[in-house]
Amino acid sequence: MEKIRNCLLDADKIRTAGEIIRAGGLVAFPTETVYGLGADALNGCAVKKIYEAKGRPSDNPLIVHIARFSDLEEIAAKLPPSAKCLSDAFWPGPLTMIVEKSEKVPYETTGGMDTVAVRMPSHPTALALIRESGGFVAAPSANASGRPSPTLAEHVADDLCGRIPMILDGGQVGIGLESTIVDLTEEVPMILRPGYITQEMLEEVIGEVRVDPGILADAGMQRPKAPGMKYKHYAPRADLVLVDGEETHVVEKINELTRRAGMTGRRAAVIGTDETCSRYRANVVVSIGARSDEEAIARHLYKILRDFDEMEIDVIYSESFATPKIGQAIMNRLLKAAGYQVIHV
Ligand code: TXA
Ligand code: MG
Fold first, then answer.
1. Which string of DSSP letters, residue by residue, matches 89-150?
2. Ligand 1 within 6 A of 224 CB?
3. CATH superfamily placement of domain 239-344
4. CA–CA separation, 239 vs 269, rounded Å?
5. Predicted pLDDT at 7
6. What pTM value is reported for the model?
7. What CATH number has the domain spanning 2-216?
8. How far apart are the CA of 290 and the centre of ligand 2, in A?
């Protein structure tokens, strides 16, 4: 397997990667959100290889990545006016839109659905690769199914080494959480997955937007509309428990929980912040960043979960991070990873 760092500077490497994709192969590449595992979105056989490499259920549709707006018109059967408004406001960038698909898009790509998810990423390497690959690159996050999305090329290699011919290494990604998905086939556009682009940001451009009730913490048995959101994704090997409440109480509670874990011989770790870390007593304490810097929290989350998987940790206690903007996305991923175990203090 070939791994190439800073490929942006090397047009030849991107050309080679494009050739692999046009020939029906797979290439992992950086985007501004997380690393993607790309194949030619219009080639059903190529797309099947993505599902095999990741061990992904075949009913879980993929996002088609494009590099110009006119390509959205080619793969959509019809476009609501909101698509153009959102594209003008947020593309290229971390927003995925769901629209009705045209016949060009094979059902392998959409997991059998008549709609297609489309995104124009802003990462220059991703854009260059899409252009070299013929314009339509289907790409899920480049992790093995069930593991946190990769924010470093090393994470891709850890999960997919030997299963794919090439990884383009662009270093650490900028955002660290997957794109916001908005479904434009609903009468009122609906967020199926929260991300860096928030409900408020979308509403400023297209008016009322709802959030899929199936993804909220108290959803109970209601099924999320995005097939991928129903899986227990991002689950760390250790048991993860969130502790929510006023800072001093959270620190006290987590210290009590780690002490109790120690007494029963379980190895505990803590996810805290720059502000609180020195006050924790556990042997393993990691800061996710400063509480005031929600972008740092988003960027570090998946790496921390992966690092814990490498250690022999039995239980992780984490502060909760319902920060103003990306907070909904951070908490959505954390709650899923925790299997919704939250202690309120
Ligand atoms: O930031 C991102 O979106 C990254 C980068 C690589 O672009 N990609 C990504 O893809 O997160 P993936 O496959 O890991 O997540 C795609 C999500 C899944 O939950 C899937 O079920 C949902 O999008 N999805 C795709 N097409 C859909 C459709 N037609 N209707 C409903 N949900 C859809
Ligand atoms: Mg994924």
1. HH-SSSEEEEEEB-TTS-HHHHTT-SEEEEE----HHHHHHHHHTTS-EE--BSSPTTSPPP
2. no
3. Threonylcarbamoyl-AMP synthase, C-terminal domain (3.40.50.11030)
4. 10
5. 44
6. 0.95
7. 3.90.870.10
8. 26
